[in-house]
Amino acid sequence: MPSGLPVCVVKYGGNAMTDNDLKREVIKNVCLLQNYGYRVVIVHGGGPFIKQALLRAKIKSEFIDGHRVTTPEAIEHVETALKGQVNGSLVKLVNQLGYKAVGLSGKDGKIATAVKRMHRKEVDGHVEEHDLGWVGDVVSMDTGLLELLLDHEYIPVLACLAADVDSNEYNVNGDMFSGHLAGALKAEIFLLLTDVDGLMRDKDDPATLIRELALSDIPSLREQQIVQGGMIPKLEACEIALNNGAGSAVILNGTRPEQLLAVGKRESVGTTIFL
pLDDT (tens digit, 9 = 90+) per residue, 86-127? Predict the structure, then answer.
């Protein structure tokens, strides 16, 4: 597969990950993007699997403003769930479908370098910092290993783990990780799979789907509180990707795998965000 072919980075998560039949259909259609001329990278989270792993280890899950606190006791189980359970199952599935998968995390080949993340929130006019433990923010990406794999028709499957310059290990938000990676790879398209059809002006009314959006429109949508809940990190990930070299970003419904084939056919689907 020539190195000149465009890259597609797919962030996979949500309900499309927990239903086995749906998972197979989604991954099949993600792999088919290779048949449509894309070099494909899959990035995955695994919140439900982390939750179960911590329950089994009798480690209490704590959240601050929706962000999981990852204690020293928890990081080992987080890595086992992401790299061992989720990543392993996806690699197996891609290979079963006749493609060639390589399971990785951001730690492999120093793909992702992170720093410790402090969660900041404004309270009564001043900013409070909260320690999230072993949670990191990506500060750099080295895509050399991934480009080598892509040029030989492998599909890299990445868990959202990274290390800092001292080899301390961090759990990284999957949306943020994939946004940084899409930018670093100069992906032609960055796909974020979620559980709805895209960004809607009224989250309860599918008819209000915003089909196209300029990056410069996002601050206004935030002010109008159109961007809420789980869409906040997804839009932030799109901004990271586009500002760092990705061509476009698409938020689409992972519970409707046919939307992935529409992307392969270069048809409009979900919410597409451009510079």
Answer: 999 999 999 999 999 999 999 999 999 999 998 887 778 788
Q: Could you tell me which residues come within 8 angstroms of residue 4 by beta carbon, excluding any fewer than 6 positions away?
A: none
Torsion of CA 241, 234, 269, 39, to 10 degrees: 40
Write down the pTM of the prediction: 0.95
Q: Are 73 and 54 in contact (CB under 8 A)?
A: no
Judge whether 242 and 249 are in contact, CB under 8 Å.
yes
Residue pLDDT, tens place only, 199-244: 999 988 999 999 999 999 999 999 999 998 889 889 999 999 999 9
Confidence of residue 152 (pLDDT cuts 50, 70, 90): very high
Provide the token pair at 63.
């959240």
Say if CB 131 and CB 62 are below 8 A apart: no
- 211: alpha, beta or left? (left if phi > 0; alpha if psi -120 to 50): alpha
What are the φ and ψ backbone dihedral angles of 75, each rounded to 5 degrees? -60, -35
Give 101's Cβ-side CA count (13 Å radius): 22
Tell me the backbone φ, ψ of residue 30, rounded to 5 degrees: -65, -45
CB 171 within 8 A of CB 230: no
CA gap 26, 21 in Å, rounded: 9
Question: Would you give the end-to-end CA distance of the chain in angstroms?
Answer: 28
Pairing of strands 112-123, 126-141: antiparallel
- Is domain 7-274 annotated with CATH 3.40.50.450? no
- For residue 171, the SS3 value is strand
